[in-house]
Amino acid sequence: MTENKSDEVLQEQKRINHVISEIGEKINKIKKNSQLISGDVGQLRKTFWEDVTVNFDEADDVLETFTSIKQQAELLGERERSYGQIHKQLNTLNKLKYSPYFGRIDFKENGEETEAIYIGIASFMDKEEQNFYIYDWRAPISSIYYDYSKGPAKYEIPEGAVEGELVLKRQFIIRNGKVISLFDTGVTIGDELLLEVLGNQASTMMKSIVATIQKEQNKIIRNDSKKILVVQGVAGSGKTSAALQRVAYLLYRHRKTLTADNIMLFSPNPLFNSYVSTVLPELGEENMQQSTFLEYLVNRVGKGLEVEDPFSQLEILLDAEQQEKASFRLKSIEYKSSLAFKEKIEEEIHRFSTNGIIFKTIAFGGKVFFSKEELARKFYEFDATSSIPNRMELLKEWIQKEMKKHAKQERKQVWVDEEMDLLDKEDYLKAYKLTQKKSNKKIGEFAQYEEEEKILRRFIVNRRFKGIYKFIKNLEFINYIAMYKGIFMEERPKELPIDAWETICVKTMEHLKHKKIWNEDATPFAYFKDRLEGKKSNTGIKQVFIDEAQDYSPFQMAYIKELYPYSRMTLLGDVNQAIYAHANNELKEEDHKEIERIVLTKSYRSTQEIVEFTKEIAANGDIIEPFNRHGEKPVIVEVEDLNLLPGVALNRICTLKKKKYQTIALICKTKKESEQVYQYLKKHIEVRLIEKGTISYEKGISVIPAYLAKGIEFDAVILYNSSIYNTELERELFYTACTRAMHELILLTKKNQLNMFIKGINPQTYMLQIEEVKIEK
Ligand SMILES: Nc1ncnc2c1ncn2[C@@H]1O[C@H](COP(=O)(O)OP(=O)(O)OP(=O)(O)O)[C@@H](O)[C@H]1O
């Protein structure tokens, strides 16, 4: 660390004290204001109904009542919004009070005086609102801090570039209002501060990197020129971190038109969702919408089919004992993930335009209201030039109209008489009131009774028809499954050999028969459904982020793009961590006018020693550059007998625990392996098993299958039985697992059975140890 010049520190501390006292004053002022508003909100809520005119007598009165309620609700909403704003502001000010800024740049704009710019997580001005005590890190001028070292520098504003000279660049660590350290930096954003940050223990929650954003990451964060931004970044290069900072940046830059609700992040698993959930609040912003693609698909496919999750799909491919099943699934996955299959679906849809649509019969209590043939006939009676979704809509409207007639008929049936006796008092009362309301004039007792009975019969039929009405409204009368199956009764696509196609057809249909759908079919099925009933494109989303983009198949990627046709997209991924069988070339694709591509090659997560080792696993790993932080070389532990493996893992975990690491992971290849070793370990130490549904992880020891460790990191990683990663398909999984380690990496292996990847690694990059201690079975 650069030496702390004590008078500089004193000067800076003086300024900090002043700024903090101003922040304190502002907080007090806002609090007073907020009490007023909160009082207002409370009062408004209390007297809401007193202040509106409620009168339902005449149509005019109803309108007046409606307007009055609306006005009152708007007033309340506005006050609540300003109350929410104030709350947010107070939150940010309290953060600033603790640590007002992290950086300072002295910038001399050409022809102007040098100005000291202090940079923090939000802007803060003096009382007169004339000068900035703190600049938001997202302000245009702040980019100099991330992009330049001392010397000529410039930043962009809408009117053009502002040029000048960067005279000083200083970094602070301020805690609780006190300068802990201060250093003036040279070339990049203080390697020293970064070194300090990266040397810390891993947390179970991702941290914001705002104070140490690197120049190349800043490009990702501030990029706003093209519709699609693609980031190919090696493991640990800060893709996810930069993506979250980018969300914060976009929310700031477009604050008038963009809110957190307009941003969607697709993440790899539920654990990841919670892992990243604190970054934006730390920056004073709200979290964007977050979902896994599976969640989206399950919703879209609908209740009728159970969707296989991608992890179960992967498990089959990884299970050495199910090689035959795996080889068939691989073919199925490859084809159904391709754009060729999407084309095939398109052809099928085209055919449905003139014939072949299959419906379900709509019946009630054994009585057919609409046969499937009738529905098909009616469908094809509509104008053939109209799109399929439009005709579906017309068909639905027609059915709904016809249903009114059926309902009327049904009211006369005997079963309704029987159910009349079972009605409760409230129904009678309701019918009575409705009759009263309906007839202003006094009517005779008999007429009154007749009217009530009519209403009660309507109640009964409506109640029993509720299911059918919903079925119709949701277009469930379209037999998607039968039609989807139809694709597999057709001629072989040219991409596949005959035997492969036949097996795919038989097995896919068999699986669908059991009301289950494989993961590779889920996207095509959802797409197929969309093409028949109309796209559910989401216009509210303006920015879509896809993390681990390499794990999306070409079909999925194309589908997502169609779902969000008006959104900008940020795709982040690493071709070396593509753990699924379907290939996706999106990250490698040629540039075109809508795409901006950024490549990150420096890895920040792991020590230099770990990166030197892991880069040799990755295909094209030469481009990976380690960050200059040192630790021990990875250790490969050879074990005589595989039965000793759980005990050896336990020993190693205990040694790591003594080193006071906060998060230690034992990464296994499959769920089965994780469960087995977990059962052993839990008898000896406190340990947690992470499964696909796990939504958060805690400090301590976790046993986790490699594919669930995606995107997250641990202080120390032990790779359990590394000998079993042995096919080219498993290279990425093995690489992903090893790159989760920040400070220490240990790989257990059967003696003399180094896997095919380790065999290719320079032995200088690791230490080989033989576990000699015999452990009882
Ligand atoms: N500029 C930075 N300043 C401080 N820490 C950083 C910076 N960039 C990355 N890191 C740290 O490096 C680690 C890896 O970052 P992150 O998870 O964002 O990388 P990634 O590229 O998404 O990784 P992977 O693809 O391997 O999951 C995190 O601990 C993150 O805090």
From TrEMBL:
Pfam families noted in UniProt: UvrD-helicase, UvrD_C, UvrD_C_2
Keywords: ATP-binding, Helicase, Hydrolase, Isomerase, Nucleotide-binding
Catalytically driven reaction(s): ATP + H2O = ADP + phosphate + H(+); Couples ATP hydrolysis with the unwinding of duplex DNA by translocating in the 3'-5' direction
Family matches, as Gene3D superfamilies: 1.10.10.160, P-loop containing nucleotide triphosphate hydrolases
Gene Ontology BP, a term: recombinational repair
Record SUPFAM superfamilies: P-loop containing nucleoside triphosphate hydrolases
Stored InterPro entries: DExx_box_DNA_helicase_dom_sf, DNA_helicase_UvrD-like_C, DNA_helicase_UvrD/REP, HelD_bacillota, P-loop_NTPase, UvrD-like_ATP-bd, UvrD-like_helicase_C
Gene Ontology terms for molecular function: 3'-5' DNA helicase activity; ATP binding; DNA binding; hydrolase activity
Domain UvrD-like helicase ATP-binding: 212-607
One Gene Ontology cellular component: cytosol
EC number(s) given by UniProt: 5.6.2.4
Binding site for ATP: G233, V234, A235, G236, S237, G238, K239, T240
Sequence similarity: Belongs to the helicase family. UvrD subfamily.
Listed name of the protein: DNA 3'-5' helicase
Species name: Niallia nealsonii
